[in-house]
């Protein structure tokens, strides 16, 4: 039998025989559940108590042939016979193949990458079975946990000295507080999120139709309350009060400020306006004919509410999470996150609301949340390849690097798709897939005097404030992978059904750059030439280069938090030169070269070592 250089067979690995631990979805080798004659189960370790012990259930895995780095194939690296493996998996009694993600058309089948057109399998099996399958693949088969993905909206941060400890004395103090949230003219605000922080576990709830919620802090008194946070459903600014004076005897009223009461949003939404971030990037100075026509944008998120007046022009999409039951449910956005991103990117240029960067672009809403996983993101990118999307907005991330997803990102890049990705909101290192060398990672900044001092947006401020009021957002992830930064604090945009809200996050920063990328592709002279008009990785790299070159440095902080700086719309479409930028700082001093299309160090295939930049592409 022929062998590859690593000693692996060219045939698919033999699947191990089912074991008792593998055949039961909830059983493990240590399980003590014993079937009873009457069909019920009882836990042998808990005499007198009906039920069963909790064990590990079968997990969902992504299975794909590993693509060899360029050059290894010439050395005899043999691809896996994936069709035979798929049949073996489907014939296995203790492995459930739940989906196969692959090319959706001839165009997708001809695209390079991802298993040579074989696609990936999604299967449920025990961890033991997955480990055995991976080992028998001998380095040629990817078997990865189908990890969940998260939206990159800034999470509520607990005040200092608040812990997750629960009081042990049930007879201790309890602080019961009624919070009443009202808006203009005392109108009660329903569905507002309210959180009360003491020194231990916080209490959270949502206001009822009367705008009220009752919260109970166990082990706390009014003197130990550290903070009160209110996030309205829409149309009002958030509220945050440190060390609030809470009364347990009467309702505590929080009067919210309307968005339109802020001077920069005067008359909003009846009168159309630009967000502060769009003005910072000089979108308001762009000639009216520059509207992103001819460019296709995909927003892989929670959908887009086309009930919104500013988003009625979005007519295409794909509901990935419900593709078998309701693939056209992409226009239902229960979270509002995708709708908010869509507003920044492409809100219609009408008399009311906000105007997006590229209102004439063709927008596709790919619904991945709630509940999105890596396999579904691979499926969404396959949709983008099939539809010949130009720019993809990814305001999402996962906890771990996925090589299977990376192969699909490379495949998309080779098809001419530029992925613009949120860096993350943990305040730590850049998260994946923003850490991929094949995407453009975006960090978040804010600006002083663009939000009320008593709003929660003020909690994102750090000490790195430049002469123009720009600051790096405390929540934004950082690292050498950050390419640029964009406005991501107090960003006003669309939310369902036909309202507006001001949100924070690298999720909000990324659409600014996605919209700018669409304008660049539609109007920069370079992309009207044969060299860069043709879809391919060279066009993607040139787009990233133009965006980085248009940026100006902002903030006085570490440049790993801002990259090259804040991109400029006029420069990105080729209207102005760098000398005409309004700020004296131009580009960051550290040079950056385009990363190689395949980086085994970043993927964890080889021991992690990243040489100092600039560096030459790896050769094998």
TrEMBL record:
The active site is at 301 (charge relay system), 337 (charge relay system), 507 (charge relay system). Residues 1-12, 20-34 have a biased composition (Low complexity). One of its GO terms (molecular function) is serine-type endopeptidase activity. The keyword Protease applies. The keyword Oxidoreductase does not apply. Keywords: Hydrolase, Protease, Serine protease. Residues 292-565 form the Peptidase S8/S53 domain. Residues 35-46 have a biased composition (Polar residues). InterPro entries: Peptidase_S8/S53_dom (IPR000209), Peptidase_S8/S53_dom_sf (IPR036852), Peptidase_S8_His-AS (IPR022398), Peptidase_S8_Ser-AS (IPR023828), Peptidase_S8_subtilisin-like (IPR050131), Peptidase_S8_subtilisin-rel (IPR015500). PROSITE patterns: SUBTILASE, SUBTILASE_HIS, SUBTILASE_SER. Residues 1-52 are annotated as: Disordered. GO terms for biological process: proteolysis. Pfam families: Peptidase_S8. Belongs to the peptidase S8 family. This is S8 family serine peptidase. It comes from Duganella radicis. The lineage of its organism: Bacteria, Pseudomonadati, Pseudomonadota, Betaproteobacteria, Burkholderiales.
